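Standup notes
- DV: blocked on the single-chain target, sequence here:
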Amino acid sequence: MLLPLLLLAQDPLAPLDYWVGRCWRTTLAPEVTDTHCFTRVEAGVRDHHEVIDKGEKVYQGDTDYRWDGTRIRFAYRNDQGPVSEGVVTPTATGLDMEGVQLERTATGFAMITERGRREFTRTE
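- DV (later): unblocked, structure below
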């Protein structure tokens, strides 16, 4: 229990390290994929995602994560503009983002929403 608190004190965005520097993909339908790539940016961490249908980009968005001095906050926007924002709560198995959970798995991560569970695997 002490180690996570020490890591948080050194780098408050450390709970996102599992995802950072990697791209992750899931299949939404035949020939339709959703790929998320997490990178460190000056203000924190960015998750850029693109939905590709038969080789054509049909949708994209960015989730920005930043430390506000007391907690991790996120803001999501897509092609149409701002969509949602809120607080990220690190959990024992991943992250809780107010209705969306990212859960680390043996082969990648799962995104869990009210619509269900979607498995992502690393691309390389």
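- Follow-up: Confidence is low (pLDDT under 50) at residues 1-8.
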